[in-house]
């Protein structure tokens, strides 16, 4: 993050739901990523649902505690396409997912994640797949128990380091753009509308 944007963030209300969406989900908003986690105060859950209602971004509540809510935010078609990749389906099947529709995957993962957060035990590493991380990096993380990575940014990288470095820089650039728009007084719903138009498939002229 550039010094200019860092200073903008310091001047923002970090508790504002608009700021939190920008900081946590800019790669998804911009269309660079198929999904993102969003962790917010429980009191803001209803507001998030209103903000995202017509944004083109779907949301699924993974966990609610007394103080926090964890959402998976995603673009439905791109996430479904990613989860249908052969290597991803194989990894999900090996992790015990019998039904590989998006709804069934989310439902099963939600139960596993809630159990882990309440009782501990094995962390459901398939979260990396739901977040759209490259399959080789999720596999490398599991096999190496989070060690021996080649690079660490938005996730731990086990292959194609330079490609991932460039991708992470694009994520950072997206974050800076969204933060700058907020600082100029553009509301988060207007920002979502801008990117919704950019990311919706264009219909061919007839």
UniProtKB/TrEMBL annotation:
Database matches in InterPro entries: DUF3793
Pfam entry (one): DUF3793
Protein name as annotated: DUF3793 family protein
Native organism: Roseburia yibonii
């Amino acid at each position: 993050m550039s010094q200019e944007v860092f200073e903008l963030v310091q001047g923002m209300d970090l508790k504002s739901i608009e700021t939190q969406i920008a900081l946590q989900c800019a790669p998804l908003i911009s269309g660079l990523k198929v999904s993102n986690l969003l962790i917010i105060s429980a009191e803001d859950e209803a507001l998030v649902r209103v903000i995202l209602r017509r944004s083109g971004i779907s949301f699924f509540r993974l966990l609610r505690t007394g103080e926090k809510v964890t959402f998976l935010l995603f673009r439905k078609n791109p996430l479904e396409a990613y989860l249908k990749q052969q290597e991803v389906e194989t990894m999900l099947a090996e992790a015990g997912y019998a039904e590989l529709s998006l709804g069934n995957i989310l439902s099963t993962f939600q139960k596993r994640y809630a159990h882990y957060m309440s009782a501990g035990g094995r962390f459901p590493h398939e979260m990396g797949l739901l977040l759209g991380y490259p399959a080789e990096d999720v596999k490398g993380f599991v096999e190496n128990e989070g060690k021996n990575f080649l690079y660490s940014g938005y996730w731990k990288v086990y292959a194609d380091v330079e490609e991932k470095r460039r991708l992470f820089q694009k994520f950072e650039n997206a974050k800076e753009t969204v933060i700058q728009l907020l600082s100029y007084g553009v509301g988060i719903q207007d920002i979502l509308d801008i990117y919704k138009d950019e990311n919706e498939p264009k219909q061919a002229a007839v």
